[in-house]
Amino acid sequence: MTATRSAEFVNAVIKAYDVRGVVGEQLDAQFVSDVGASFARLMRSEGASRVVIGHDMRDSSPELAAAFAEGVTGQGLNVVHIGLASTDQLYFASGSLDCPGAMFTASHNPARYNGIKLCRAKALPVGQDTGLGIIKDEVVSGVPAFDGPRGAETEVDVLADYASFLRGLVELDDIRPLTIAVDAGNGMGGHTVPAVLGTLGQVKIEPLYFELDGSFPNHEANPLDPANLVDLQKLVRTTGADIGLAFDGDADRCFVVDEKGDPVSPSAITALVAERELAKEPGAVVIHNLITSHAVPELVHELGGTPVRTRVGHSFIKQEMATTGAVFGGEHSAHYYFRDFWGADSGMLAALHVLAALGEKDRPVSELMAAYDKYAASGEINSTVADAAERTLAVLEAFANRAVAIDRLDGVTVQLADDAWFNLRASNTEPLLRLNVEARTSAEVDALVTEILSIVRS
């Protein structure tokens, strides 16, 4: 039996979708070993005999990955180490090796953080209701000891196979020559981009911050923040690159910048990839979360596909991918999910689709994407509030006479006249209300944002 801990402490670290906390304060080797032991118990009960483990470039990742392996082998399961990896590379290993997996990363969070993303065999998600709740309870009460033999540990390099697999999913042989500016943000894109794109003869890479450095010396590895795109935008403009790509810390998300250095909406990328996947499989299901642009389901309908709307969060998307057999799914946060990739997300695979679409036509990214960018959007705006429910009710009361429809799939989504809508969602972990607004014009978006925030922040 391992040590017991307070529920309050464990709940702060084992969250709804993953494990994440400050190294040394919330995450240490013993805590991680116990999580590994509990995960192994759960996977053994489901018939698994081994677990694959990968880690990012953070200083703490190798030690924590080793501690997790200690917990797993102590429960009688074998461990396959793949070493340095992006999160989607870990998903590839889980899928191709047909075993559960654990990825050590805190994604885009600052250097003092680390975490664990867990999955079942074939990259199936492990969330609060599908295993994390069980693990949380055992880490609180103490993980029962295993009285059988310890598991063994081996090392396997899957990077080349991962790269080959992705390239096999997208036809790139006949694209025109492209110059691609890539900002890896000192994250795992510096590991995977050369392997996936570096062997394409038609592609010239202009690299930025490819050195693996978990201290993130140049900028945060969070391209969702416009401040972290500035260096890539400058590189695109100074080199005359055809396109810019920015990856987050664990390189499972990819953001696109056009030839002018202007950011491309992840919703537009979702629409483009959806069109390509529906061309291969007419009538297929495409998943989109509820704050993705309405341009996405409209396009899917036009192409004869079936759009399915979900809550925000990868576990919900992956569940719907599995339930509906969807060919593709996209989120506003630049997570892109593919049935051909075990239903898991891969920013690199989305990037390959964009490069293929660009390389097949003799026109710039800005013109290519214009067809998919029908509406203006605010992006996600966070407000610190004392009572999210009370502030949400105040907004609903203010818009009661203008609302065409209201739904509560995830927070509240209010549909207004003339294609305008907004969503207010409370954070699960912080005292925040998250606002997203979409309308036909930027002026309409700005007016709605001003009005809604005046109520939320009053």
From TrEMBL:
Residues 14-132, 162-261, 267-375 form the Alpha-D-phosphohexomutase alpha/beta/alpha domain. Residues 380-453 form the Alpha-D-phosphohexomutase C-terminal domain. Its cofactor is Mg(2+). It comes from the Bacteria. It comes from Nocardia aurea. Pfam families: PGM_PMM_I (PF02878), PGM_PMM_II (PF02879), PGM_PMM_III (PF02880), PGM_PMM_IV (PF00408). Coiled coil: none annotated. The keyword Transferase does not apply. This is Phosphomannomutase/phosphoglucomutase.
